[in-house]
């Protein structure tokens, strides 16, 4: 066996070439390939766990945080979960070939707008082996090739997973070059991926706000920004205590480390006396530290004084910022200033206030009387989630498989010319 | 009256602020405002033509080409045409507030996906005063504020047009800051516009390939690329002579300076002897210079030898490149290598070849047996055209008003939390 040294660019060009055949695969062929990948992942559990152990040992030596070590860790149960996720994707409807528009011109030319794969999807992410499998499966289901850059901490694990997936594709008669990694090229690989305009069609970063900022700033490949969530809940003057308490607690405590968890609660002055005490009490009972302004501190005990920095902070932990606002206008102004345009919710019994909030808040998902934790592809019924877009181009909010497709106009004529 | 010196950034921030109220305007208010703008433009014809004369005089002094001087020139007739175009936009349906998806979760939360304005649309373009009015009107119709950078050659004309449009907005009680220019800041204004991520939501460059390349490369604001067209027609083995001749002549000659005009004709070897002579003859009769490969030169007279550069050239003039290919595979390979992914068409009577071409060519519009000149918003029945996107994200092909909107999910609940 000869060893070929391929550059990062060579690998991306191979992905581009593979994308042509993968883009033409039938629904059934893609689904069957994903089932084969799931089986292959489970069959290779021992190899994958062994590779993962190498990454974990290196991580422990280099001082990787316990939290990141946990994210990185794969055992047999987690490998099975990876395979199960691939099987779920295999069963989703094919997003390619949907007819999105159809019109016949007066001269008889028939126009059809159909969904088509992007071609090559790139992803840059951090220390999460599950993303390696998720993104590869979602890309393949939507007829795309994929180029992955998964970070040094998970390098061996990702290499093992990618080798298994590529072998499974080859065994199914599908070009294995459709799944590529530039991990071994380190930061230079990430840089080349970001500059591969014309080869890579879209780049989806997944990870910290800093990683996403770097990709958005440095990439000449179009990026779908999946973003940080400085998520707000406004307790309006008429907010029922029970809804306020249950929704705020759920939105903060159920899973504090994710982007749809609430970070800041705004309380209408007219409701402050009625709501601040019980809501803060319920949060504190669940171990939440509340950073509050003076008005909040006057109505509850155990409040850490809020700083200006708190309003812009995505805590991602059992910490929450709380502020009393004079009215809906002040709440909207606060949200305009600090929101990352992910999700905001108003708790109110005033329909006019709810509708104004829904109309004026400029975020991917705007809610009335529901927990911000519902901003999620699975909750929305998409069956899979590519990420949650916080930008306005192409996709906004939870992205499902259709968001991994582009469109193409087909025109069928019989000799027509323009007059 | 005091003179306030505003920076480019100040102007963009004012546009962002104005976008909030403009985004909430009713269909009727936007339509009425556009009618008022059209009236105001016609009423100000003398001022606009006078400002334009200053630009033209400066252009003539500085050696602006005759072609560009003609693009720049406004007389009373052309000013009326600008106003008429605004009236057309006023009558288009409002693209904001369309319900694009609706689902009720098992827990009763109602989700609605609606179209919303982007917020602030930026445009960088060159020496075409009609774009100033077109983009401002399209942006306003879709509830967006706009920041324009129209190039130094048209500076006085654009300033006059923008002053008229802003005054008309103010008279209608609409925030005039919704129409902004950064023209007076020159290249620095363009640079700041490209870096205004978080203020400007999307940037639409219109102009030369070089201008678009610069914007795509330098902008951190998401860009919708409207691109160059190295457009191909393949004359397949079974192409009827009449269709081949009429479509190629129409696609090249009807308006050679636009992006949907054909630049390269590929001829299947089995049809070369039958088609090359008559098609080249028909082109030459219409004044077209044909750059051909050796096989073409062997079948027709007056052929300029084609160079490698010709295949990548968007002539935008009465010049055309022509090559004989062995088969459909070679044609697809040539198109993959040289296409700018705008429009390609196959002329054939072989349905299998047509369907393969439609499936495998990766362009915004792929045709069988029709002139490439049909790739156009008006021809597609969109009523207005924002540009023709040659990228795959958000919009592909001719863009109408809906492509100037984003989406937002609205969630209406009654106290639901995630379990």
From TrEMBL, chains A, B:
Coiled coil: none annotated. The keyword NADP applies. Pathway: Amino-acid biosynthesis; L-proline biosynthesis; L-glutamate 5-semialdehyde from L-glutamate: step 2/2. Residues 14-285 form the Aldehyde dehydrogenase domain. Its EC number is 1.2.1.41. The keyword Signal does not apply. InterPro entries: Ald_DH/histidinol_DH, Ald_DH_C, Ald_DH_N, Aldehyde_DH_dom, G-glutamylP_reductase_CS, Glu-5-SA_DH, GPR_dom. It comes from the Bacteria. Keywords: Amino-acid biosynthesis, Cytoplasm, NADP, Oxidoreductase, Proline biosynthesis. Pfam families: Aldedh. It catalyses: L-glutamate 5-semialdehyde + phosphate + NADP(+) = L-glutamyl 5-phosphate + NADPH + H(+). It is found in: Cytoplasm. Catalyzes the NADPH-dependent reduction of L-glutamate 5-phosphate into L-glutamate 5-semialdehyde and phosphate. The product spontaneously undergoes cyclization to form 1-pyrroline-5-carboxylate. PANTHER family: DELTA-1-PYRROLINE-5-CARBOXYLATE SYNTHASE, GLUTAMATE SEMIALDEHYDE DEHYDROGENASE. Belongs to the gamma-glutamyl phosphate reductase family. This is Gamma-glutamyl phosphate reductase. It comes from Microbacterium terricola.
């Amino acid at each position: 066996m000869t060893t070929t040294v391929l550059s990062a660019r060579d690998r991306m060009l191979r992905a581009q070439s593979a994308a042509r055949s993968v883009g033409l695969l039938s629904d059934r062929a893609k689904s069957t390939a994903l089932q084969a990948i799931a089986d292959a992942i489970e069959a290779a559990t021992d190899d994958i766990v062994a590779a993962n152990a190498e990454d974990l040992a290196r991580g422990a030596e280099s001082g990787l945080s316990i939290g990141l070590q946990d994210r990185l860790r794969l055992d047999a149960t987690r490998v099975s979960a990876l395979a199960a996720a691939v099987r779920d994707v295999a069963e989703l409807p094919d997003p390619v070939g949907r007819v999105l528009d159809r019109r016949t011109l007066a001269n008889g030319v028939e126009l059809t707008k159909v969904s088509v794969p992007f071609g090559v999807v790139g992803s840059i992410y951090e220390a999460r082996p599950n993303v390696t499998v998720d993104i590869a499966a979602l890309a393949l289901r939507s007829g795309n090739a994929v180029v992955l850059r998964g970070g040094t901490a998970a390098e061996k694990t990702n290499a093992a997973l990618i080798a298994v997936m590529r072998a499974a594709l080859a065994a199914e008669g599908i070009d294995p070059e459709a799944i590529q990694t530039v991990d071994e090229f380190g930061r230079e690989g990430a840089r080349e991926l970001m500059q591969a305009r014309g080869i890579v069609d879209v780049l989806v970063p997944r990870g910290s706000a800093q990683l996403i900022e770097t990709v958005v700033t440095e990439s000449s490949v179009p990026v779908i920004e999946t973003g940080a969530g400085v998520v707000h809940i406004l307790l309006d003057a008429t907010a029922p205590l029970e809804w306020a308490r249950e929704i705020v607690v759920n939105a903060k405590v159920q899973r504090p480390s994710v982007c749809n968890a609430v970070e800041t609660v705004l309380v209408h002055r007219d409701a402050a006396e009625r709501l601040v005490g019980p809501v803060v009490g319920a949060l504190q009972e669940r171990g939440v530290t509340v950073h509050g302004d003076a008005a909040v501190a006057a109505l509850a005990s155990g409040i850490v004084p809020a700083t200006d920095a708190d309003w812009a902070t995505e805590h991602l932990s059992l910490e929450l910022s709380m502020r009393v606002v004079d009215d809906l206008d002040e709440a909207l102004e606060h949200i305009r200033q600090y929101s990352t345009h992910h999700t905001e919710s108003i708790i109110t019994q005033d329909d006019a206030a709810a509708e104004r909030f829904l109309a004026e808040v400029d975020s991917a998902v705007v809610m009335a009387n529901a927990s911000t934790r519902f901003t999620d592809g699975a909750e929305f019924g998409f069956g899979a989630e590519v990420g949650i877009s916080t930008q306005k181009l192409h996709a906004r909010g939870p992205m499902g498989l259709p968001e991994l497709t582009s469109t193409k106009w087909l025109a069928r004529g019989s000799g027509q010319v323009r007059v």
